[in-house]
Amino acid sequence: GELPAMTDHLFVVDHDDRFIGLLSITDILTKDPGQMVGQVMTRKFKPIPADMAESDVAGLFEKRDLVSAPVVDADGKLLGRITIDDVVDVIRDEAEHSIMSMAGLDEEDDIFAPVVVSSRRRGIWLGINLITALIASWVIGQFEATIEQVVALAVLMPIVASMGGIAGSQTLTLVIRGMALGHIGPANARHILKKELAVGGLNGLLWALVVAAVTMYWFENFMIGVIIAAAMLINLFAAALAGATIPLMMRKMGIDPALSSSVVLTTVTDVVGFFAFLGLATLVLL
């Protein structure tokens, strides 16, 4: 008969069906036919426990570049195998979960769900987003007098918040993906944080200079250019910090990072951006 699809190894077991090693198809075809199986097979391969989480299995396949792998029970007995086709399905499901969770949805909430059910689920997160927007609006309200005297600030405020939001979302997406694939954990979290802070600081400095130059030319006001540059540098640095730490904090609290991190990040970047920009303007211009 024909070998099953995705078969790159044969699994070697003892008389009790306990897994003891792998025999490569390539070795079967190229090695001396007179050799014993025990002389050719690989004994160092660690099989996959039957109770391992799907996400961990996907991570193993990615790290080891596997096509197939044996699955064993607690006693080491061979139960079957898992192939890259199965892992692709897991990765696709996780990707769908992450995409929908970022919008405050879940797998059950799709275009075929009843109107009332969909409205209720989405309405909860719209309400949470409204609360965060009110917090940002309250911060702006604290500087009403400043905005009335310097109208240019109202024109420039969205730039500071938007740049922070985009920078934070980039970091947030990378961290959540890394956590889902098992690339980010307690061992390397500090390194990831330092790297993202460096990226945020570098991008903040670069785009702060660009926006400052445009602002000075547009409004013919040197100090406003300096203020928005400083505010943008502060907000992009804060965005990188928030984007890297919020998912880790959410996971420690037992909350799905993909489901809640984006709402918290938006609040942080809006509040920090508005407060830094308007606060500096109040101190310098008035």
Helix content: 55-70%
Number of domains: 2
- How many helices? The count is 10
Q: How many E strands?
A: 5
Structural class: mainly alpha
Which descriptor suits the 3D outline? elongated
Largest sheet: 3 strands, mixed
List the helices and strands in order. Answer: EEHHEHEEHHHHHHH
The name CATH uses for the topology of the largest domain is Tetracycline Repressor, domain 2
InterPro entries: CBS_dom (IPR000644), CBS_dom_sf (IPR046342), MgtE_transporter (IPR006669), SLC41_membr_dom (IPR006667), SLC41_membr_dom_sf (IPR036739)
Protein name: Magnesium transporter
Family: Belongs to the SLC41A transporter family.
Subcellular location: Membrane
Give the arrangement of secondary structure elements.
Elements: E1 9-13, E2 19-24, H1 25-30, H2 37-40, E3 48-49, H3 54-64, E4 68-72, E5 78-83, H4 84-102, H5 115-141, H6 144-149, H7 152-180, H8 189-219, H9 222-252, H10 257-285
Parallel strand pairs: 3-4
Antiparallel strand pairs: 1-2, 4-5
Family: Belongs to the SLC41A transporter family.
Transmembrane segments: 123-140, 152-176, 197-218, 224-250, 262-285
Protein name: Magnesium transporter
